[in-house]
Amino acid sequence: MTTALLSTAEELHARVRHGRRAVVMTMGALHEGHATLIRAARELAGTDGEVVVTIFVNPLQFGAGEDLDRYPRTLDADLKLAGQAGADAVFAPSVDEVYPGGEPQVRLSAGPMGERLEGASRPGHFDGMLTVVAKLLHLTSPDAALFGQKDAQQLALIRRMVRDLNFGVEIVAVPTVREEDGLALSSRNRYLSPEERRTALTLSRALFAGRDRHAAQEALRARAREVPSTHARAEALSAIGESRAAADAHAVATAAPGGPAAVRAAARQVLDEALRLDPPLRLDYLALVDPADFTEIGADFTGEAVLAVAARVGATRLIDNLPLTFGAAS
């Protein structure tokens, strides 16, 4: 497959469309996570459709002191990877092409959800992100746009924007892609030294610890519900026969239904231990939130939730998350 490289909106609009168009928006420095998105887009568009990958390092979503100038720009390699993954075209416009009048005077606001977690750490980031996503949706006019679940808050805000402003596009989420050791793929991983990368693994390990605690709690509760009420609770728990039952039974007995506090505590323990590593992990936030608005969930929460973490290792800031389901919905 020959992948066309387009740099202007005129070139993009001149393409003859057949079937569905699926778009994958990136800032370049493509890796296997992006390739997974492109392959998913190819499957969605079908053989008669079209897959367009956008590559644009958006200055509006970088704050003071962030890595705009050093953000990796690898267009030749990106074009090759995109083509191998199934892209028909790569749209890589210049800043002047996207913002022909300079920085736009009219921008989208991410609202209260955009001021939490990543928004609190990076003021204005989500306003800039939504502004460029809206522009690229208008420029590419896709039937579907695919985004990774690794950027969970970004995904939630894009979905909200599309719903609130009546964009006629389907937003498709694709699960996070990880290295074999669990580290979530990111273009910023290339900044990490070997020592920093070892410390960075703490992010995924903390999430996995929270997930494992949650899974154990849910399994214990499910088993306990199956045991006749005439049995003592201790008998119900011991009947499971799992090696972790003794430790988890205490958490189940003391945590509120669904156990968000225990999940946070399990993840926090791993992150606290990382403070003593060399180099240390500098935690930005650990949160267990409702994906509808990214507010912290309460003790009686049921349904889908996101366990999210952000931290710095050396000069590199990394984020990661895992979806969890609490209560009856699980």
Automatic annotation (TrEMBL):
Pfam families on file: Pantoate_ligase
SUPFAM superfamilies referenced in this protein's UniProt entry, alphabetically: Nucleotidylyl transferase
Residues annotated for beta-alanine binding in this entry: 61
Active site: 34 (proton donor)
Catalytic activity annotation: (R)-pantoate + beta-alanine + ATP = (R)-pantothenate + AMP + diphosphate + H(+)
Domain of life: Bacteria
UniProt-listed Enzyme Commission number(s): 6.3.2.1
Keywords: ATP-binding, Cytoplasm, Ligase, Nucleotide-binding, Pantothenate biosynthesis
Segments passing through the bilayer: none
Positions annotated to bind (R)-pantoate: 61, 154
Subcellular location: Cytoplasm
Quaternary structure note: Homodimer.
Protein's name in the database: Pantothenate synthetase
Organism: Streptomyces musisoli
Originating gene: panC
